[in-house]
Amino acid sequence: MNDIVVRDNMSVAATGAKDFVTVHLAGQQVGIPVLAVHDVLNAQQITVIPRAPDWVAGVLNLRGRIVTAIDLRRRLGLPPLDEGKSSMSVVVEHNEDPYSLQIDKVGEVLSLENQLFEKNPVTLDAHWREVSIGIYRLKDQLLPILDVDKLLAFESNSKAA
Amino acid sequence: MDDLLNEFLTETGESIDVVDVELVKLEQDPNNKEVLDNIFRLVHTIKGTCGFLGLPRLESVAHASENVLGKFRDGELQVSESSVTVILESLDRIKEILAGLEATEEEPDGDDTDLINRLDAIAEGGDAPVQQVEPDTVDGEIIDPGNGRSLKAGEVSLEELEAVFANTPGPDDSVGQDDQSPANSSATDSNASLFDRVGGEDTLAVAAHLIGQRVDTDTKLKKYFEGTNQEQRKGRFMGLMLALFKDDIDAADAVGRQLVTVAGFGEAQFDTMLELVKSVLSECQVKSGVVDEAVMTFELVREAVINASKAVAQPKADAAGRAKAGAKQQGAATESRRSSQSIRVSVDLLEDLMNMVSELVLTRNQLLQITRNMDNSELGVPLQRLSQCTTELQENVMKTRMQPIGNAWAKLPRIVRDLTVDLDKKIELEMLGADTELDRQVLELIKDPLTHMVRNSADHGIEMPAERIAAGKPEVGSITLNAYHEGGHIIIQIKDDGRGISAEKLSGKIVEKGLATEDELANMSEAQIQKFIFHPGFSMAEKVTSVSGRGVGMDVVRTNIEKIGGTIDMVSTIGKGSSFSIKIPLTLAIVAGLIVKAQNERYAIPQISVLELVRATSAEKAGENDHKIELINNTPVLRLRNRLLPLVFLNEMLGFCTREDIEARETSDDFIVVSQVGAFTFGLVVDQVFDTEEIVVKPVAPILKDLDFYSGNTILGDGSVIMILDPNGIANKANSSVSDAAAEEDNEQNQVHLASGDEKESVLVFVAGAEHPKAVPLSLVARLEEISVDDIEQSDGRLMVQYRDTLMPLVLADPAMTLREKGSQPVLVFTDRQFTMGLAVDEILDIVEDELDIKLASDKNGVVGSAVINGKASEVIDVTYFLGKAFPDWLASKDMSIEAGVSRGSERLLIVDDSDFFRNMLRPILKVAGYNVTAVNCAEAALKLMESGAMFDFIISDIEMPDMSGHEFARAIRENSKWEDVKLIALSALTSEKDINRGFEAGFDDYVAKFDKDTLLRSLSQQFKIQGDAA
User: Fold this and answer.
1) Whole-prediction pTM value?
2) β-strands B774-777, B781-788: how paired?
3) CB pairs under 8 A between A and B
4) Are B165 and B301 members of one domain?
5) Which residue ranges form the domains of chain A, and what is each CATH number?
6) pLDDT of A42-60, one tens digit each?
7) How far apart are CA B618 and CA B669, in angstroms?
8) Which residue of A60, A61, A75 to mutate against B (max B Cβ within 10 Å)?
C-alpha cells in the first residue's frame, strides 16, 4: 500500500489544481481523481465469476467486504495482461458498492493545474471517450482522467455487454 | 421500569412518529388507501396495547381517533384538513401522556373530554367546527420547549458560555471547568428559542446582575451566597440561565451545582430564589408567559442545586468528591430518562460487527498457521489466549442475531391473563418450544402478528365458560403456542380449543362487506371461506370491542409474515377450535450451504434445496448396483430408485467446458447433488463435494444481478470469496437448454415464437369408443372418478349416477362406446357453476404436457378438432357439447354463450398476464371454445408482438404487472395506431369502483374481476357480439 509516491508538490495544492492518482495500463498512464480512491492494494486473490461479463475480473475480499473487481484493461479495450503478471487494485465506490479496478501498476499522486486540462478529442476511441472526463497535458505525455461513475454505471451498458 | 411498559413506550413512540408523517401524506393524497391502512393499523395497535396496560386516558384518546380513521377507511368520511388536524392533535396528546408516563410510570392526570368530543363529533357528523388549539396548550409540562420553534442559526455560542465560566473565579473553579467540557460539547445543537424570547444575552446580563445584587439584600438568601462577591454571583446566574434557556440540561446541571457554596440550601430556599428570579425577569420587561416558562426551567436544576449544598455540608468533602457526587447524580438522571436493560442496536451495526469478527477469525487462523511452523515460539501462549477470545467473541456476535422465540412470547401470558379478566373467560396459555432460536430480525417482525393472533384466539376463539360447559368441553379453554424447526424453517402453531370459525357467519359478513357474492361463496369450500379472515378490511368480531375487532388483525398478520418470506395457514373446525400455523425462514441472512467444486473453483449451494448426494461411477467401471450416468439422445440422466433424474453438468453450465469435453475427459467418479426447485428435481454434477458450512449471504454487485446463476456471494472461513449458486436459475437454464437448444441463439426470436401460442399445457388423454386417443385440457376437468357400474341408473332414458348427494347425468364420450358390464367405469367430472356432469370413458391413458395446437377443425359433434398430442393424432373433445347434452338447459342458462356467438377460430385473442396460473387457466378455456389464443407474460412482450405486426381482435390484460402496468399498457396501445381498434378487456383483482374507473380512463373497454370466470366469459361474449354485429 505504500506504492504511492508522494510528490513534493502535492502539498502545495494551489488553487485551480486537482489531485490525481496515476495508474499504468498497458503502457498508458491514466489518472483517477484522488478523492475517489479508497484503497490501493497489491495483488489479491480474486474469485472468478463464470458467465459474468468479461470485464468483470471477479470478486475479492477486502477486510470482510466483498468487492467486485473490474478488469480495466478489458473495459478500455486493451489487450489482457501477460500471463504470470499480477495486477494491482484501486478500490473505488459507486452507489455505495465497492469496486476494485484492476490495473497494472499504480503510479504517483499528481497535482495538476486546471489550465492543463482539455476535453476529449473527438477522435478518441469509443471505449475511452465513454469513460474519460478529459485529458491533462503533461510535459512528457498526455494523461486521460477516468470518470469513475461513468466507468461503473453498468445499468446502462450491462445489456450490451 | 416495567419491561412491558418500557417496550410499549419505545414502540408507541416509534409508531406515533410514523403516523405523524403518514397523516401528512394522507392529507395530501386522501385517496391513498395504503397510507390510510397503515395509519389505521398503527393507531389500532396503540389502542390495543393501552388497553392491556391499563392506560385508560391513552386508550380513550386513541380509540376516538381510531374511530375517525375507521370512518375514513370505510369511505364514510372524507379526509379533510380539519379532521386531520384534530387527529394530529390527538397524537400530540398521546405523546404528552407518553412523556408523563415515561417520567412517572403513571398516566398523568388530565382531561381529554374536549378532544374526544371533537373526534366523536367528526366521526358522527363529519366536520364539526374545529376549535383551534390555543398555542402552547401544554401548560406546565415542558416536554420539548424548543421543538417547533424557529432556531436562529448559530445563536449558541460556546465561547460565551465558556467565557462566563472562565470569569467565575471561586474555590471550586477547577472542578467546574472540568465539568464543563463534556457539557459544552453537548451544547452544540441546543435550541435558542427560549433564550431569544427572554430577550437574548443583554436582558440576561441585566437580570443576572440584578439577581446577584438582590441576593445580597434578601435576608432569606443572603447567607447562602456568602463567600462570593457580586460579580461571581452574576457570572453564575448568567451561566445558569444561558444554559437553561438554551435547553442545555447538562451544562445547567453543572452550573447549578456550583451556584450555592454554603450548606443548608433546601427546597424552601430554592423556592425563594425562584421568586426572586421571577420578579427580576418581570422587571426586565420579559412577558409574563415567558417568565413562567423561564422560571419553570429552573426546576430542572432544583435537585442539583440542593444536592450541591448538601455536599458542601460534609466538611471533608473535597472537590473530587463533589465531582463524583455530581457525576453519580447525573448518571442517575440519565438512567431515569431511559432506563432499560437493553439497547436497540441497528442490524447494520451487527452486520458490521459480524464482518469484523470474521476478519478477526481469519487473521487468527493465519497467525496460528504461522506459529504452527515455528518451534518453541514465545507467541504460543498469548496466541492461544487470543484464539480463545476470538472464538468466544465470534460465538457471541453470532448470538446477538439469534434469539429464542420465547422473547417474543414474554408478554403473552400477561396479555392473556388480562383478557381473561376483561372478558370473564377462563383461558390457559401453554407455550412449547420457547427456546427455539431464530434471527432477531425475523423475531422482531413476527412479534406483533403473534400477539395479535393470541389475542384473537382469546377474544373470538375461546367461548364463555358457560358456553363451554354446555358444549361438553372443559370450563377452562386452552391456547397452545408451539414452535419447532422443520426443514430450515420454523413452524409456529397457535392452537385454541374454542368454537372454531363459522363459515356461515363469515359468509354473511363477506357478502355484507362486498368481498364476494353469495353465488361465489356457494362454490367455495368451508376452508376457502374461512380464509377470508385474512382479507383486508374484514372483521370477525360481532361488535367492535376495545380488545380487537376492527378487521385489521389477520390482514396485518398475513402482510407481516409474508414480508419475511413466510406463509400462514389455518385449519378450523366448528366447535373444536382453530389452529394457525406460520412457517417462516430461520434467518434472513445465514443459511447452510453445501460447498462444491467445479473447475478448481468452489461454489455454495443452499442446503435447503439439496435433497441428497449421489456418487456416480463411470460407466465402464460401474457394477450392477452402482449409479451411473447414462445418455438418452445426448441427454444425461441418472437412474435413481427407478426414476430417471435429469442431470446438469455444473462445468458446462458455467461455461468451463463443453459437453464434448465432459464426455471426452478421463472417466472418473462424479458427485451428483440432487436438488429440488419447486416440483422440478434434477441432479447437478460437480467435480467434488466438500462439506456444509454456515454462510452469510451477501448480495452480489448490481452488475451481476442479471446473472441468474447466483443468488449471492459469501466469504468463507479461509477468507476466500465464493459465489452462491441459485438452483432456481440453474433449473431454468437447464430447462430451456433441454427443451430448445436453439433458444439461446436467438432470444428475441424465441420470445415471439413462444408468444405465438406454443406453450405447453396439461392434457388428459383417454380412449372412448374408437381406438384413437381423445384429449381434453386437464384444466377443464374437475375430478376423475371411478364409478361402480352397479351405481349407474337409467332414468328418463338417460344415464344417471348418485354423486355427492345429487344426481349427476352421465354422458358417453363417444356414441360408439358402451358401458362396462361390471366393475367400475372411469368418469371425467366436469363442473360449470351448478352443473356437474360425468363423461364416461373407456380408459384414462395419461396426462401429458404438450401443445394443444388444433390442426384440423372438425364438424363432428363433440369434437373441437384434431391435434398432435404426444406424437399421436388425437381428437380434442368439446366439453360444451357434452354439457349441453347432459343439461339441455345449460346453454340457455348462460346469459350469452360465447360458443354460440361467434364463428370458431376467427377471433384472435391476446392474453397479457404475468401470472402463469391465469394464463394457463384462461388459455385452454378460450382455446377450446374456439379462439385463436396467444398468451404473453408481460406488456413489453405484447408490445413487441405489436411491433412485429401481429394483429388481434381482443386483448385481455392484467392490471398489476411488473415493469409495465395494465394501465400503461392500455394507454400505450390507445396511443398507437396499429392496435387502436383492438378491444381491451382488463382483468384484475382490483375491483373497486375507483379501480374500474381508472381502467376505463386508461382505455379499457371492459373491466372484469380476476376471480370471476363467468363474468369474464360473459364480457368476452358481449364484446364479441358487438364486434360481430358491427362486422
Assistant:
1) 0.39
2) unpaired
3) 67
4) yes
5) 5-154 (2.40.50.180)
6) 888 889 888 888 888 899 9
7) 6
8) A61
